[in-house]
Amino acid sequence: MSDLIRPRTLKGFRDFLPEAAIPREAVIATALEVYRNYGYSPIDTPVLEYADILLGKGSDETDKQTYRFTDHGGRDVAMRFDLTVPFARFAAQHIGVLGTPFKRYHVGPVWRGENTQRGRYREFVQFDFDIIGTESSLADIETILVAHDVFAALGFERFSVRVNDRRVLNGLLEKFGLDGAAVAVLRALDKLPKVGPDGVRRELAAAGADDAAVAAIMSLVGITGSNREVVTQLREMMADSPTAMAGVEGLHALAEAVAALGIDEARVHIDLSIARGLDYYTGMVFETFLDDLPEIGSCCSGGRYADLASLYTKQRLPGVGGSLGVDRLLAAMDELGLVDGRATWAPVLVTVFDDEGRLHALRLAGELRAAGIGAEVFPDTKRLGAQLKYADRRGHRLVVIAGPDERTAGQVQIKDLAAGTSQSIDEGDFVAAVGAWLEA
After folding, report:
1. Residue 288 to residues 110, 163, 276: CA-CA distances in angstroms?
2. How many CB atoms are closer than 10 A to CB 1?
3. Cα–Cα distance measured from residue 54 to residue 86, given in angstroms and rounded to the nearest whole number
4. CB contact at 8 A, 172 and 217
5. Is 323 in contact with 349 (CB distance < 8 Å)?
6. In this structure, how many other beta carbons lie within 10 angstroms of the beta carbon of residue 285?
7. Reported confidence tier of residue 1, pLDDT bands at 50, 70, 90
8. Does residue 50 or residue 211 have the better pLDDT?
């Protein structure tokens, strides 16, 4: 017999056991409901794209991290590093059928060959939402509202969607003749949480900013206050820059919407240090952090891109959207103790005592499922203790027991594992009883 192959996974890649996969599905289902409520439609794109579709669209660093190879047909191909660039290609290819504005959501794995760290892997799932074919500030505002509503729907109380507009910084750079260094400056600012203010100053100097420019940039990103106060300060500081003022007006529209909708500014606020490292953003940008675990980084980010789709079509297709980092969010939720490792989609286990009870158990479970209650039938005729232990390990809330004595009496016994209590119910009433028990 040949030697066995040692089972193992590549660095940065993971298997998902049920205790991790079920919470991930729950997060996706929650976000899906929010996206649908805002009118977004589902799409899908291939994992593989021609390399020229993907390369040069994110950043030099992203290009280095992209998985790229020659396929069996001799084509230069690459695996998608995000879902936004493939969407731009998708929109350019199909917009004649889709019409504008078009709103999409898309969930799927993406790949980046980067160094692994807490909450960051080489294969991870993103859940994107975008509006393409409009420049309306209303679309920008709605994008922020979607991000806010997803985190609220997931049950987070303490989170912050931090919003900026790249046009504000671009206007400042124009003043100092640093237009050509905008990408380097943005990437320097994007490193602020990692390297701190002094590290950013060194990066800015390396990018060609003199002392006056460095001081002005650091003064800009250091502006704080309420949303309206920040907008007021920006208007005074950037009044002579049409580019910057376009961004200021976008932030003003957001500030007014947050106030009008009664959203807590602790949850949605202007943060002028937010830059986003990808090159294709041109206007509003945002990142979302968990206040109780800020060091894990942004769990939902995005912004406006004016020209990305124009790389693939002469039709102008400006867009705006965001991406929910499902795996990073789950890592954070696990660290915060918000993930139930014993969760199951079927809250009820129906036991089997003997061969005569198999069909009876199947019928009981079928009645529960017909009423919209998930139910699992234990497949073997093991002793009751073993079946109860299985139910507890799997996270079932209730166990339906219908042994020979119960069948003879026309009853079932319902056992609440958490409370340690049980009750005998007439078989004709047990579905309603289980439903009431689960809702209690």
Report:
1. 20, 9, 12
2. 3
3. 7
4. yes
5. no
6. 26
7. low
8. 50
Q: What is the 3-state secondary structure (H, E, C) of the chain?
A: CCCCCCCCCCCCCCCCCHHHHHHHHHHHHHHHHHHHHCCCEECCCCCEEEHHHHCCCCCHHHHHHCCEEECCCCCEEEECCCCHHHHHHHHHHHHHHHCCCEEEEEEEEEECCCCCECCECCEEEEEEEEEECCCCHHHHHHHHHHHHHHHHHCCCCCEEEEEEEHHHHHHHHHHCCCHHHHHHHHHHHHCHHHHHHHHHHHHHHHCCCCHHHHHHHHHHHCCCCCHHHHHHHHHHHCCCCHHHHHHHHHHHHHHHHHHHCCCCCCCEEECCCCCCCCCCCCCEEEEEEECCCHHHCCCEEEEEECCCHHHCCCCCCCEEEEEEEHHHHHHHHHHCCCCCCCCCCCCEEECCCCHHHHHHHHHHHHHHHHCCCCEEECCCCCCHHHHHHHHHHHCCCEEEECCHHHHHHCEEEEEECCCCEEEEEEHHHHHHHHHHHHHC
pTM of the model: 0.87
Say if strands 268-270 and 159-165 run parallel, antiparallel, or are unpaired: parallel
Token pair listed for 283 = 């206007």
**What confidence tens digit (pLDDT) does each residue in 50-76 have?**
999 999 887 888 899 999 999 999 999
| Distance in angstroms (rounded) separating the CA atoms of residues 371 and 368 | 5
Phi-psi region of 303 (alpha: psi -120 to 50; beta: other; left: phi over 0): left
How many residues can be counted in the chain? 440
Q: 131 with 319: CB under 8 angstroms?
A: yes
Count other Cβ atoms within 10 Å, centred on residue 196: 10
Mean pLDDT across the chain, nearest whole number? Answer: 92
Q: Residue 415 is encoded by which pair of tokens?
A: 């056992």
Per-residue pLDDT of 219-264, as tens digits, reads 998 999 999 999 999 999 999 999 999 999 999 999 999 999 999 9
Per residue in 271-327, pLDDT tens?
A: 998 988 777 889 999 999 999 998 888 999 999 998 778 889 989 999 999 999 998
Give the distance from CA 156 to its chain's centroid.
Answer: 14
Q: Give 437's contacts (C-beta < 8 A, 6+ positions apart).
A: 398, 414, 416
Question: Please, are residues 150 and 300 in contact by the beta-carbon 8 Å criterion?
Answer: yes
